[in-house]
Design brief:
This protein is an alpha+beta fold. Helices cover about 50% and strands about 15% of the residues.
Length: about 280
């Protein structure tokens, strides 16, 4: 199948190039080829299929419609991926289903005749075929060209992307608002715990709680005195933690020093001098 905006290579006259039309030697369509292409596009017609027989493949659809005229481009809208996933989950048909489609005929007269002939009739084929009893649901779209379809598809794509960006932005704002409320609830709970500890005089618990946030009012005399008492009690507790909790032992003097005379003992002096004189 040809893509959107593609020309059919089977028509060589549409691909006549003019090398001198643009500086730099870039090939562009000649004026004659451009008029030919516009005339060819004006001859084409588009048939809209409001419903596609269940699980019919594009190749099968092209095979069924080709006898009524030469086909060019075809676009089938697939079903919602969630519906297909749900069908697979419950072990249904795993094939790909299409909900609607557009088929471009090279001759709009044949496109109009095909839609008028097949609309509301059975697909037919083999009697035991999967689509024998299905009905065609098609309509010829006058003054509708393939470019209109591509513009609509691009518009719908941009609209989906914009909607997705909006949903993501809303979800992010909701997440930030939730996290802000969670943090605010934690702060309020800590404030309540601090007030309860202050009322009960639990200094041990107050040490592990953060300071209360400042309020937008002047501190009263009673509040100032209570805060100073708590501060002095905290400083006293810290000072007591640094003090020794046991009695200091008395330092032991040197056994070689006579503490009463403030000099070395007689025995040490005798050993030093008497021993030295004997050696001499």
């Amino acid at each position: 199948e040809l893509g959107f905006g593609a020309m059919d290579p089977a028509e060589p006259e549409l691909f006549e190039f003019n090398d001198d039309a643009r500086p730099g030697g870039k090939k562009v369509l000649s004026e004659k080829a451009l008029k030919k292409a516009r005339a060819d596009q004006a001859k084409r017609g588009v048939v809209y299929l409001g419903s596609i027989p269940p699980f019919m493949k594009p190749q099968k659809l092209r095979q069924l419609l080709t006898p009524y005229g030469d086909l060019d481009r075809m676009y089938l809208m697939p079903e919602d991926p969630e519906i297909r996933a749900r069908r697979k989950k419950f072990k249904g048909n795993t094939g790909k289903n299409f909900v609607e489609g557009w088929v471009e005929f090279r001759d709009k007269k044949k496109a109009k005749a095909c839609a008028a002939m097949l609309n509301g009739t059975q697909v037919g084929g083999r009697r035991r075929g999967a689509h024998f009893s299905d009905l065609w649901n098609m309509k010829y779209l006058p003054k509708f060209k393939w470019d209109n379809l591509t513009e609509e598809i691009e518009y719908q794509k941009a609209l989906r992307e914009q909607r997705m960006q909006l949903e993501l932005s809303v979800a992010k704002k909701e997440r930030d608002f939730y996290l802000q409320k969670v943090e605010q609830a934690k702060q309020i709970e800590k404030m309540r715990e601090r007030r309860a500890a202050e009322a009960a005089g639990d200094l041990e618990k107050l040490k592990h709680l953060p300071e209360a946030p400042p309020e937008d009012r002047e501190e009263t005399k009673e509040e100032y005195e209570a805060r100073m008492r708590r501060e002095r009690a905290r400083q006293k507790e810290e000072r007591n933690q640094l003090l020794r909790r046991f009695k200091q032992r008395e330092a032991l003097g040197d056994i070689n020093v006579d503490s009463a005379r403030g000099m070395m003992s007689v025995d040490v002096l005798r050993d030093l001098f008497v021993g030295k004189s004997d050696d001499e």
